[in-house]
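Notebook, bench 3.
Goal today: get a predicted structure for Ribosome biogenesis protein NOP53 from Canariomyces notabilis so we can plan the truncation constructs. The sequence was checked against the plasmid map this morning, with no discrepancies at the termini. Length recorded as 441 residues. Pasting the sequence as submitted so the record is complete.
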Amino acid sequence: MPVLKPPSGNTNAPQQYKQPSRKGKKAWRKNVDVSEIQQGLEELNDQIIKGGVIAEKDSSDLFTIDVVGDVALKEQIAKQRTKKGLKADEIIAQRSAVPAVPIRKRAGDKTTDGILPVKRQRTDYVTHKELARIKRVADGQHESTVTVVDADYDIWAEPEKDPNAAAKDAPLVPVEKQNPKKPKTMELQPVSLSANGKPIPAVPKPKGGHSYNPAFTDYQQRLIEESEKAVEAERKRLEALEAERIKLEAAARSAAEAEAAEARADLSEWEEDSAWEGFESAGEEVSVKAKRPRRKTQAERNRIKRRKEEERKAKHEAAMKRKHAQAERIKQIALEVAEKERALALEKVEMSDASEEGDDTVLRRRQLGKFKLPEKDLELVLPDELQDSLRRLKPEGNLLKDRYRNILVRGKMESRRKIPFRRQAKTKITEKWTYKDFTLD
């Protein structure tokens, strides 16, 4: 039996990568690069031999869900953690010698802070005062002379004992440091902002409509609810625009009417002046001598000024008293309202079912503190965006935003506004040059 041998030589199809033209018939059948097609056919044959084409299989045939896990791997990881430690702890423990980049705005090279540089005082000259003193010493005029006086006491005698010395030498008693008192609100439990008053869990469980592969009924119900909310918000926006338009039209109409009224008034005044000009008789002019007012003296002006100042001070003090009283009353009312709200919330919690949890979709009040509560992100996939494969899944949501809003809704913290740069008081330092004001005689 003859032995089968593979064909010798190059078995690839004739190919030519730089082919100038393909207009002739010979160029259609040979010298064509088919290596990419040949490679694709070989990969397809390999996939068919190994069980089928991967692109035509379902996700259930390609992936499996491991619900047990590898026991040996868990033991190995536990041993590595006890011996070596976590990589996260190692990364956190590392500290760079280079300081972090500050987030504050820094001035450029050409800008200054307005502070004058410190100038060194000159020491190679003599002041006018020192020069005058040296001249007096040269002339024999000494300012002070030493006079010898006999001592009238014994420097080696023991000092007299002071009766108050014992009290002075007594050890000082250390003052106990008083720790700051914590506020009463630290002992109170936070009140959640849910409508039913129940506490909201830190990690709420999503409903069926939030799933990436939801049931038809749950998805349809959630889609209808979100659509109604969007329609209501659009309706309110259109109503606000219509009200603004009506307001602007009314303002423009009133301005036009006012201009027309002013024009009619000016025209009527001009007609009256032109009608009655030159028709008044000379007898109608009556000269009335009014009594000239007496000029006030300086003492009267000072008296009036003092009286006005006293009246102003009295009004200011009365207004400040009313303001302080109103502020105290406002604080008292705020405390009473807070206590009532807390009592109502606790009463709702006691009356409601113990197994029920709070819902952050409907809140008890929309504002806590000075700034408004951030709105919850809309995490809804439209019907044409639903996918039937996990490989084409697009994750949505932001865990950081969800966690921050959950803390605000649970009443742990008030909503704040980010202030990237804090304004600082501007300072200006100047140096007086009085030490340069000298004269030489």
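The chain has a mean pLDDT of 78. The radius of gyration is 48 Å.
Flagging this for group meeting.
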